[in-house]
């Protein structure tokens, strides 16, 4: 147990750094860069939450309730749902970091918080991959798309994506645990308490599974789809919607920019089991790369507004409709109130006359 306590500390996945380096005493002894890094990361977490909750809620409202149900709207609806669910849990993690990595929420929320983060990561990248494949088939193989690109098949794929993302993120529910340490409760990956070799093996396996299935394979698939699409479009002079293609491309690029540092630092973190040479770099890199990954959950709605003219038009018309309805409701309530006051005055006059 003592060996475990000497190596347990984590930010998002599984920090395996010496606990002494993260103690309050070390902060007083000149660990100012660490404090600055965590304040910056906290600012990014809060920005993701403040921008992401209303942004994704608007996208869910449009694609789920206002627009006609199509294959495309279902893809983006589920992408927004994945981000929205993750952001709902983000205040727990913000509190965890703000309280100097003290987790007062219990072991089950520790497990759920990590699981939801993993679910968001895998579901988002799988939906982006499917959107790229769907775009390619729809433009290059219209006959196949007409035959198989149906709402029913789309719903089946959506269910399979959520099940697959849940399955791959499932180990977080099993391995996440809490531990009392230095008068604090930490939420960490408890791969094994007494077997360092088993701990190392499980850490390696889960990190590489995340990288290969949750990043590299989808990245290659999306790159191949867009490369083939560009070649085919130029050769066959296919007319495409530049705005729609640009929206999808921007969403994919945002995902790559936000998640690439996280996966690279996660792999780099494995080296610390064998050498502490990169320790200081990881101390700053992992919190910042994690914060950058979290920001991805609020970027998609912003990109829709900036790029998609259809979204802009629907947004303006919907806001105008809401304002119109609100003003009408206020006006009607005022008229009703005036009628009630007039009615009360009339009744009181009748009573006085009767007396």
TrEMBL record:
Pfam families, A to Z: 7tm_1
Record keywords: Cell membrane, Disulfide bond, G-protein coupled receptor, Glycoprotein, Membrane, Receptor, Transducer, Transmembrane, Transmembrane helix
Membrane topology (UniProt): Multi-pass membrane protein
Any one GO cellular component localisation term in the record: plasma membrane
Keyword Zinc recorded: no
GO molecular function: complement receptor activity; G protein-coupled receptor activity
Membrane-crossing residue ranges in chain numbering: 36-62, 74-94, 114-133, 154-175, 208-231, 243-264, 284-307
GO biological process: inflammatory response; phospholipase C-activating G protein-coupled receptor signaling pathway; positive regulation of cytosolic calcium ion concentration
Entries under InterPro entries matching the protein: CML2, Formyl_rcpt-rel, GPCR_Rhodpsn, GPCR_Rhodpsn_7TM
UniProt-annotated location(s): Cell membrane
Domain of life, source organism: Eukaryota
Keyword Transmembrane belongs to the record: yes
G-protein coupled receptors family 1 profile domain ranges (all copies): 55-304
SUPFAM superfamilies, per the entry: Family A G protein-coupled receptor-like
Family stated for the protein in its record: Belongs to the chemokine-like receptor (CMKLR) family. Belongs to the G-protein coupled receptor 1 family.
Name of the protein: Chemerin-like receptor 2
The species this protein was found in: Molossus molossus (Pallas' mastiff bat)
